[in-house]
């Protein structure tokens, strides 16, 4: 599988006695959107945090662009970005200031032009000069997404990116993500509780439960394999089996 | 170390200060108040000038220099706290930023604070009390450099403790430095300490700075020995606390607590 931009092998994370992620392996191809689905506590966030170098794996390996994350952290993270419903950005700075700091942090050229683009794309013009503390949660989510796309990453990690958005904005965000993928070959690893979203967005889905991969494939594959109506039924069936 | 990432963090803090009255007060108004209070004390003491001339001239200078150490330490610890309060650590450490670059940025902030506070205090001492801190002469520079380094040591130490123990340790950003004040011999000579404490003070670089200062004012002899000890101890401890910071950073990544500090 030579076009894999992400290769995760036997990735395990233990916190003391507790195993949060239990020997998972998967690839993400260039331009692929991989959905990470699973009930609360399944280990989705921990997996993403390990892939961002924020949490050290207990064992296993993570390669991106053929490089080992442990040894080439800087080179990899330069090409990667993330957004999460649960993160935030410095409250005392304006939206534009926050984006410009991110631009500097990643050493981007042409920062004002990139910010203009993001503001247009994510419809942020009205609150571009607003202090971040005054944003609604939906606006905050758009800002963190703008922050992630600003650096033109090759891989994007999204932890429940549309959880706090109204359906209209959530829909727009999905359109933008699909467009980024089409235009630049962006690969996305993406967690969500929204089954419909998972079905429409993901090329492939990994179902995680208690740190283990219990199902993997396209939405149709998984639904067919478990003999259910749709992904939501599969989710309920698996979640209640615990 | 990459320059643009350090600069990014510095600019981020400057944006913050530009708009924040409490933060500006911290570097302008509080040092000013500090000085005014101590200024009145020295004016009062000056009425006994016959008995204690050295005390009067030294007290304001000592206060200004102590503030150099204090603000240097705060520049590090508060810059880290700002990131915790803003829940920004995740954004920073999921970027190519390295822990050393992070520390370097807090050190630049520390230099900004020290410079601002020193200017405010020296100016006030001169305008209100006719006290010229520069009468210490060119030796003032190496003394200040050493106090800044000691401030960094305490700042990095505090930062590591906050990173490791979280919210409960945040108060250390303000109190830690006062743990070191009694053994820094800021306002009194080392010889007044009880014997056992003398030994402790002796391995504190700041004590050598203040001893050297007093020696210089009293005898006008070049304070080379004091500066040598201060610099040696400073570099040794700075290496030590930076290594410990890295260790703590790795422990936090292992426990998954790095992105949860302050929550
Ligand atoms: N730093 C940590 N220390 C101890 N346990 C943790 C830590 N981080 C996560 N966990 C535990 O690991 C499990 C997986 O958490 P998480 O990855 O956040 O799940 P998800 O994102 O799928 O809801 C949970 O049971 C959680 O309590
Ligand atoms: Mg989660």
The whole-angstrom Rg of chain A is 18 Å
CATH level-two architecture of the domain at 1-79 and 155-161 and 192-242 in chain A: 3-Layer(aba) Sandwich
Helical content band of chain A = 25-40%
Our count of helices of chain A gives 9
Alpha-carbon distance between the termini of chain B?
29 Å
| Percent of residues in helices of chain B | over 70%
Q: Could you tell me the number of beta strands of chain A? A: 10
Instruction: Summarize the biggest pleated sheet of chain A.
Output: 6 strands, mixed
Low-confidence stretches of chain B: none
How are helices and strands ordered from N to C of chain B?
HHHHHHHHHHH
Strand order of the largest sheet of chain A: 6-7-8-3-9-10
Radius of gyration of chain B (Å): 19 Å
Fraction in beta strands of chain B: under 5%
Shape of chain A: globular
Q: What low-confidence regions of chain A span 5 or more consecutive residues with pLDDT below 50?
A: none
Termini separation of chain A comes to: 33 Å
Mean pLDDT of chain A: 92
Number of helices of chain B: 11
What does the secondary structure layout of this molecule look like, with pairings?
The complex is a heterodimer of chains A (242) and B (263).
Chain A: E1 4-15, E2 18-29, E3 33-37, H1 44-51, E4 59-64, E5 67-68, H2 73-77, E6 80-84, H3 95-105, H4 111-121, H5 137-150, E7 155-159, H6 167-184, E8 187-191, H7 195-201, E9 204-209, E10 212-217, H8 219-225, H9 231-240
Parallel strand pairs in A: 3-8, 3-9, 6-7, 7-8
Antiparallel strand pairs in A: 1-2, 1-4, 4-5, 9-10
Helix pairs in contact in A: 3-5
Chain B: H1 3-18, H2 21-27, H3 29-46, H4 53-85, H5 89-93, H6 99-129, H7 140-165, H8 172-180, H9 195-202, H10 205-219, H11 224-255
Helix pairs in contact in B: 1-6, 3-4, 3-6, 4-6, 4-7, 4-10, 7-8, 7-10, 7-11, 10-11
The site of magnesium ion has 3 residues of chain A, from helix 1.
């Amino acid at each position: 599988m030579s076009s894999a931009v992400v290769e995760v092998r036997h990735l395990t994370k233990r916190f003391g006695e507790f195993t949060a992620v239990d020997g998972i392996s998967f690839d993400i191809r260039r331009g692929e959107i991989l959905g990470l689905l699973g009930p609360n506590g399944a280990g989705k966030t921990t997996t993403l945090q390990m892939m961002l170098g924020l949490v050290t794996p207990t064992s296993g390996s993570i390669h991106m662009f053929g490089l080992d994350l442990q040894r080439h952290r800087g080179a990899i993270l330069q090409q990667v970005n993330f957004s999460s419903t649960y993160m935030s950005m410095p409250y005392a700075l304006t939206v534009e200031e926050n984006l410009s700091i991110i631009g500097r942090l990643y050493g981007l050229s042409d920062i004002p032009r990139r910010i203009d683009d993001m503001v247009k794309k994510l419809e942020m013009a009205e609150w571009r000069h607003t202090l971040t503390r005054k944003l609604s949660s939906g606006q905050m989510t758009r800002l963190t997404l703008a922050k992630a796309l600003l650096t033109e990453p090759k891989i994007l990690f999204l932890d429940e990116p549309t959880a706090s958005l109204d359906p209209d904005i959530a829909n727009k965000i999905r359109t933008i993500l699909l467009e980024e993928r089409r235009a630049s070959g962006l690969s996305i690893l993406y967690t969500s509780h929204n089954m419909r979203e998972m079905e429409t967005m993901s090329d492939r889905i990994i179902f995680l439960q208690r740190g283990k991969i219990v199902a993997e494939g396209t939405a149709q594959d998984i639904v067919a394999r478990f003999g259910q109506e749709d992904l939501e039924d599969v989710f309920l069936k698996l979640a209640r089996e615990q | 170390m990459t320059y643009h990432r350090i600069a990014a963090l510095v600019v981020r803090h400057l944006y913050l200060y530009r708009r924040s009255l409490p933060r500006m007060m911290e570097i302008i108004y509080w040092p000013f108040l500090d000085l005014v209070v101590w200024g009145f004390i020295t004016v009062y003491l000056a009425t006994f000038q016959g008995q204690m001339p050295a005390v009067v001239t030294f007290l304001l200078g000592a206060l200004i220099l102590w503030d150099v150490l204090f603000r240097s330490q705060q520049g590090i610890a508060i810059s880290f706290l700002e990131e915790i309060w803003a829940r920004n650590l995740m954004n920073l450490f999921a970027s190519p930023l390295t822990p050393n670059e992070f520390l370097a940025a807090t050190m630049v902030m520390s230099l900004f604070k020290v410079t601002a506070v020193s200017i405010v205090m020296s100016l006030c001492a001169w305008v209100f009390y006719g006290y010229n801190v520069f009468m210490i002469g060119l030796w003032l520079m190496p003394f200040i450099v050493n106090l800044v380094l000691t401030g960094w040591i305490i700042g990095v130490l505090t930062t590591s403790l906050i990173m490791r123990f979280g919210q409960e340790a945040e108060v250390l950003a303000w109190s830690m430095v006062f743990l070191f004040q009694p053994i820094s011999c800021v306002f009194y000579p080392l010889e007044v300490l009880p014997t056992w404490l003398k030994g402790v003070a002796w391995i504190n670089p700041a004590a050598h700075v203040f001893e050297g200062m007093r020696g210089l004012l009293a005898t006008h002899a070049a304070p080379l020995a004091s500066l040598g000890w201060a610099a040696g101890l400073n570099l040794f401890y700075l290496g030590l606390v930076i290594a410990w910071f890295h260790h703590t950073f790795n422990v936090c990544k292992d426990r998954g607590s790095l992105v949860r500090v302050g929550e």
